[in-house]
């Protein structure tokens, strides 16, 4: 199974991805995590992305596409993967289509978690507070002003993926305001429908 999880920061993508990884034996590929790892390792791609990530800005497509293309060829991605944080733009979605075509792969579904902006801000602030209380570092891209910019980016840029994937019959929206269990059930129902042969 190969799927894209869409949703603004704090929508619960990580929580749902973790559950899907266990249930389906696939891997989660978070471009945010991959980029942060590259920054920490001081790789050339990481150095290019470092300043952009700290400001909450979008990383250039060619960097992200390069990371994703290499990663989905790893042996642990053979059973499938969840892309979290990619694609963010229509041009990235087109690049993803192209690279999957080149590798003779295709997406099974694109699931979007729909959440109210005000709730998102409080979720991210709570997450930052919990990390700080536990003595763990708070991500620079979880600062309130950066989060607000990331939400704006999502609403202005990433939301354009909706019609792109609707046209391909891959897009499914679920209510991210529901309980974790209800969101999980909605996602499972959408994935089951996506994998059923058309009648």
Describe this structure in words.
The chain is α/β, with parallel strands linked by helices and 199 residues long. The chain has a single domain, classed as P-loop containing nucleotide triphosphate hydrolases (Rossmann fold). It contains 9 helices and 5 strands; from the N terminus they run E-H-E-H-H-H-E-H-E-H-H-H-E-H. Helix 2 crosses helix 3 and helix 6 packs antiparallel against helix 7. It is globular and about 50 Å long.
Uncertain regions spanning at least 5 consecutive residues: none
CATH class: Alpha Beta
- Put simply, the count of helices is 9
Residue share in helices?
A: 55-70%
What's the shape?
globular
Secondary-structure-derived class: alpha/beta
Side-by-side strand order of the widest sheet: 2-3-1-4-5
Label the CATH architecture: 3-Layer(aba) Sandwich
What is the succession of H and E elements? EHEHHHEHEHHHEH
The overall pLDDT average reads 86
Q: How much of the residues is beta strand, in percent?
A: 5-15%
Total domain count? 1
Q: What does the largest sheet look like?
A: 5 strands, parallel
Rg on CA atoms, Å: 16 Å
What is the CATH fold-level name? Answer: Rossmann fold
């Amino acid at each position: 199974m190969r799927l894209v999880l869409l949703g603004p920061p704090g929508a619960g993508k990580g929580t749902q991805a973790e559950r899907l990884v266990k249930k389906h034996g696939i891997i989660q590929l978070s471009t945010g995590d991959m980029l942060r790892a590259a920054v920490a390792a001081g790789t050339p791609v990481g150095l290019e992305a470092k300043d952009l990530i700290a400001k909450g800005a979008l990383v250039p497509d060619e960097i992200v596409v390069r990371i994703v293309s290499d990663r989905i060829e790893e042996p642990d991605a053979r059973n499938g993967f969840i892309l979290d944080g990619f694609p963010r733009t229509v041009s990235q979605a087109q690049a993803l289509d192209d690279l999957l075509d080149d590798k003779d792969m295709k997406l099974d579904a694109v699931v979007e978690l729909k959440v109210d902006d005000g709730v998102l801000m409080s979720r991210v602030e709570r997450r930052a507070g919990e990390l700080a209380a536990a003595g763990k570092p708070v991500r620079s891209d979880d600062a309130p002003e950066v989060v607000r910019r990331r939400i704006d980016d999502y609403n202005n840029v990433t939301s354009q993926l909706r019609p792109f994937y609707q046209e391909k019959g891959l897009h499914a929206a679920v209510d991210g305001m529901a309980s974790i269990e209800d969101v999980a059930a909605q996602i499972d129902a959408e994935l089951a429908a996506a994998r059923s042969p058309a009648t």
